Every structure is written in structure tokens, then in C-alpha cells.
User: What shape does this take?
Amino acid sequence: MEPFLKKFFHDVYTKMKEDKEVSNYCKFDSQLLTSFTSSLYVAGLFATFIASSVTRTFGRKASILLGGANFLAGAALGGAAFNIYMLIFGRVLLGVGVGFANQAVPLYLSEMAPSKYRGGINNSFQLSVGIGVLIANLINYGTEKVKGGWGWRVSLAMAAVPAFILTLGALFLPETPNSLIQRTNDREKVKRMLQRIRGTDDVQAELDDLIVASETSKTIKHPFKNILQRKYRPQFVMSVAIPFFQQVTGINVIAFYAPILFRTIGLGESAALLSAVVTGAVGIATTAMSMLIVDKVGRRGLLIFGGIQMFVTQMIVGGLMGAKLGDHGGVSKAWAFVILVLICIYVAGFGLSWGPLGWLIPSEIFPLEIRSAGQSITVAVNFLFTFLVGQTFLAMLCHFKYGIFFFFGGWVAIMTAFVYWFLPETKNLPIEKMDKVWREHWFWKKIVGENVELIIKEEAT
Assistant: This one.
């Protein structure tokens, strides 16, 4: 919003409104603006490691509560900001909230869900994020029209509404059976909880798996050190590769800077904000579709299909912007519409695949003894590369210009090949028996296969 830019990022506002010589691709190249955007993710990066200890020691519920409290504080500070320091500090508090929530919520969902519905239930995390993005874009579109130029305060302060719901709702959440057995070893309490959430008295087999996993987890005193062991190598690789690939799809180019990107191709302020609403709605619809089919189609098929869809659209968008958009002026409304449609197809590919599955797969592949550590690594890598992409994108857009789409498209091609060769299917497998997929995979069995005969004997016993 122009009043927001004028108050906090005056250099950007001046370049946008008055400098006719600067390239279309460079109008928003500001380290201060990118620092504001990506400060959230630096805070989240560090917070997730603290959250790992909280989640392991005090339970998933405690981390969700702490996340909600930080969201509330960050929203209040952002809405009341009168200088850039207050604005960025509020953003940092929001980042701490995101660090705790992203660490605990996917784990909570995967541990509470029955194995045959785990994919769909866990994907509701990304669906909810998508709904939040859409609501935020709608609020921005509405408050941009507030006379007097203070609509941005409403946008930032209204983050307190979902923060309040999260914090209050977390007070009523039951703790997961996995966390209860890990922290209390009260088997009767865990059995009652399982019976309650599964809706049946026949939970002995799942309880036995939890007990075995809990006994193993109690022997692990340093989960971050143990995750480096050879037997956990596949999970460790995935905890780094999946969030890295999720970020270099280029989705945060759209998520962070959609209005800026649409203004680059010549749309006005209001039209650019409305276009961001459209892409957000597409993301929600396709994530909802992913929820419905992920436990039937499987994880690998969706990732490969979505990867091909994103790659093709990125190549076309890059080509069109290279051919139609110069350093000055804009593109015609017809071509702007075509580019918007192509970006929606790209967002649809992400919403169907890497968006929800980038959170689902890491949350279900770790054994209990390293689960909180593994999830923290996943979140930390995610935040690290979210920060790097967010911090460098505007400069990359200025220097690469339309080539930015070819850059991210190249990464999409690499990650799709990686999934095809190295990611086994994990659908419908109980979360505490997930080690089976690595022992049977053509590549990973060469690394973890040294213990296969011993494990098979133990299972037979």
C-alpha cells in the first residue's frame, strides 16, 4: 500500500512514483523492504530449535500455546508501529510464533490422525495457511481503500484475531498419545486417549507400537546428534531436501511479492492486490483437492505431477515476460491477464503437491525418538531458505529480470527428478512403522540395509 511504503520505505515509494528511469524490474529493490519481509523467517529459524525442546519436554500443546502468544504480541506491535524499529520487532515476534507453530502443529496432526487419513488431515495445515493468505489478501484489498491512509494498521493488527483463536483453542486441545507416552509413560492414560480419539476400544496394536517407540526414544539423550547416525540417514536427508526444494519452487516469489510482481507487469495498486486474492483462492482450492486424493493417489504421484505443471508454467511465464515486458512501461491488459492465468496454474501445481506435502512427508517419516529434532530441522531449513529467497528476490528480479522464472524452473526440474528416484511412497503406513519404506527402497536399503536381518527377526519375534 502506498501510504505504508511512504511512511516506512520512502525510497521505494519515491522510485515507484517519481523515478521514470528505473527499470520495471528494479523499482522495489530495497534491502530495508526485504529485511522487513524476511525478519520473520530469521526469528522463526532460531525459535524452532527452542520449540523442539519445548515440544519434546512439555508436549505439542505447550508449543502451540507459546506460538499463539507470540502471534498476539507481534500483531499488537505491528498495528501500533510508528517507526521501522517497532514494525520489524513486531515482525520478529510473529516469526517466533511461526517457529513454534510450524514445529508443533504438523506433528500434532500426524500423531493424532489414523494412518489411512493422515495425509488428508495433515494437509489441512497447508489448507489453513492458504485460507489465511486469502483472507489476508482480501483484508489488504479492502483496507487499501480506507481514506486517510491508515488501512495498513488494520491489516497488521487484525492478525490478532486468528492469534487469539489459536491461543484460546490450544487450551482445550488434548495432548497426543505419542507425546503422553514419551513424557509420562502412563500406559492406561495413553490407552484411554487412543480409545477416545480412534472411537474404538480396539487400540492395543497401536498402543504396543507406541510403547516400543517410547522405550526406544528414552534411550536417546541427544536427538540432534543421533539423527546423524547412519540408520537415520534417509530421514535426515529428507528433512533437509524437502523443505529446501519447497522454497526453491519459487512459491514465495508469489506469496511475498504477488502485488509487486503484478505491478511490475503494469497492473495498478488495486488490481495488483485483487490479483493476489485470485492466486490465493486457486491455492486453497487445489490444496483442498490434494487433501481429498493424497491418501488414494499417494505422495510421489502428486509431487511429480505438480512439479511438471510448475516447471512448464514457469518456462512460459519467463518467456512471455522476456518477449512482452521491457524495462519501462507495462504489458497490455490482455497479456497481463494471460500471465495472471499462467501464474494461477503454477500456484495450482504447488497447492496440489509441494505446498501441503512439503509439510506432510517430514512430519510422518521420523521415528518417535528423533521426531521433534527432525521436525525442527525441517522447519529450520524451510525458514533459512525462505529467508534467503525473501531477502534476495527483489535484487534477483532486478538483475535476472524475466530470467528469475527460468532460475526457479530449473530447481523444479531437479526436485521432480529427486522425488522420482529417491522418495519412497509413505501413504497408509502406520507412523511408528515408517522405517519399513527405507529398508525396501532400491537406494536407501544400501545405507540402512545392514540392520535388515536383525530388524526382521525382531519383528517376527
Summary: The two ends are 65 Å apart (CA to CA). The mean pLDDT is 86.
